[in-house]
Structure formats: structure tokens, C-alpha cells
Amino acid sequence: MGSGLTTAYDQDTLRSVIREWKAEGLRTALVPTMGALHDGHLELVRRGVQIADRVVVTVFVNPKQFAANEDLDKYPNDISADKTMLESVGADLVYVPNNDEMYPTGFSCVVSLKGPASVGLEDKYRPQFFDGVTTVVAKLFNQASCDYAMFGEKDFQQLAVVSQMVRDLNIATTIVPVETVREPSGLAMASRNAYLSEKELALAPSIYNFAKQTAANINDGMNPKEAADATAQKLTDLGFRVDYVEARNANTLDYVKNNNEPMRILTAAWLGKTRLIDNIGV
Fold first, then answer.
1. Please, which residues bridge with residue 175 across strands?
2. pTM higher than the cut 0.85
3. pLDDT band per the 50, 70, 90 thresholds, residue 28
4. Which of 68, 62, 206, 45 is nearest to 126 (CA)?
5. Which residues pair with 248 in a beta bridge?
């Protein structure tokens, strides 16, 4: 950990600082975020501090991963609060580029994957999402050239997609998965939880609790699809609008063929105007 938090607004400054660190033989970790930080993000930074000498956090609300009807314009944004939190957990540099820095006039490149990006989960409901994620993450990896990059398991399909991109494009950054951080209720921490009303906050942990029951049922021999479908119905009965509850192979995200495969229960559902996602291992 260095002394204090440095802010970079452009890639030249970012590269200059990291180049100096590398000249000193220091290992670097990258934590890509869209800001509105919570303890889930901070856990990524803490993990980075454990394995690297310097930690870089990026704060950029990426317009390319939002559809026209999504919440880009009202996405939470408080960079001052974010910086205070980052300093408290030992981040060394925060990179806060604007749209023109990331997507200058004439920008025309898209990084697009198949494989785990086209398995009928998030890609089915947000078809533009992963092209936006992989494009911006590839740019951040190139700009920062860090040794490690920390990604939370809460966005499990995203973790699989970014890992595949790194392998396919021979990017010299090691992806480090970090376990989902939860509220005492079990609700996975997420920036969009701020949209939930008090009543919705009381209901939201049902996603996690039902997923645990689904995993238990599968471990007891229940057919994975039947177990997942039963959970989807329970959530619907509680007032959720379910996009999916799926039992998928934890390595490939393909449909499971038998109960002996490594499995992940993945859920996405709306509660009021807020879309929640979560997953757990079986």
C-alpha cells in the first residue's frame, strides 16, 4: 500500500503512475467499478491489497452496457464518497475517466464474445450488456496493464465472460474471483439496492434464501430444472417478476445434464423497479 490516494482522469496519467510502480518491481491489481461503492466493492480492494503492492480502482459508468430503457441517467454517482471509502481500505489510485477519454470521437471497436456470453442468462435479457462490458474492460486492461484484476462472483456470468476474454486474447492480467459480499439478511450487496423501498428490502433476501433451498433440494437428488422452476414459482408468488432461475454448470454455464456436475444456481428477478441478480454454488 502506498501513501494516500492519487486520482487520474486520463490514461496518460494512469499509465505514467503504473509505469513508475512497475519500474520499482511492484505488483499491481485493478478493480473496475461503476462507482456508487459499497462493501462488496471494498472487499475487492481489500483482496487486491492482500495480493498486490498497489491497487488501482476505476470509476466509470459505462454507457455501452446500458440499453435505452435502463437506468444510465439515474445510476448512483458520488465520487467524493467513493474516494473516502477507497482511501479507508488502502487503494492507491482511482482512475476517473470521462466518456470522451474512453470513447473519443470516431471510436468504432466492439469486443464481442460467444461462449459464456451467449448462454441465455443475462445475455437473453440484456443483449447489449456483455459487448459493453468486454469492450470497456479490454480498454481498462490495456490502459492499466495490471498484474491482477479483481471481479466479484455476484456477477457470475460476467466473471466467466471476462475470464474467457482474457484467455482468448492472451491478456497478461490474472483474473481473481472474489466471493459475494452479503448484507446480514443474506441479500447480495449491489449499488442498485439503493432503489429498494423498505418493504422491498424485507422481501429481497428471498432470492438468496430460496436459492439455498434449491441447492439443498438438488443435493438431495431433485432434478435441477424442477428445483429451479419451483423456486421461480415461489418468487413469483411473493411478487417478484422473474427473468430466470437456472441451475447451470459452474464451469461452462451450459445446462446441466445430471446432479453430479459442479453447479451454480443463478437468479435474476425484478422487485418493483429494481432488477436483482444473485447466484450460489450447489
1. 149
2. yes
3. very high
4. 68
5. 255, 264
